């Protein structure tokens, strides 16, 4: 067996190891990649998005918010299974 860690969990382990400079470096890189991914998703789905940011693991980890671009816009099928439907608001 092996311990399988997400990228955010690996950041948490580095933080526990006292590797603050490495954590900052990797967090910046993950946020940059996430921001580019969020921009591509928003463009393809015709939705609005916010910046990708690192949150505590107890919340969402490294994530980006997606919202309707216009009032009344339905949640795209590709996003429907993620998070709560109640979070899809203009």
What does this structure look like?
The structure is a single chain. By secondary structure, the protein is mainly α. The protein has one domain (7-84). The chain has helices at residues 7-16, 20-45, 77-80; strands spanning 48-49, 53-54, 62-63, 66-67. The strands form 2 sheets. Strands 1-4 form a two-stranded antiparallel ribbon. A two-stranded antiparallel sheet has the order 2-3. Helix 1 (7-16) packs antiparallel against helix 2. The longest helix has 26 residues, at 20-45.
List keywords for this structure.
90 residues, mainly alpha, two-stranded antiparallel sheet, 44% helix
Quick structural summary:
The chain has 90 residues and is mainly alpha-helical. The protein has helices at 7-16, 20-45, 77-80, and strands spanning 48-49, 53-54, 62-63, 66-67.
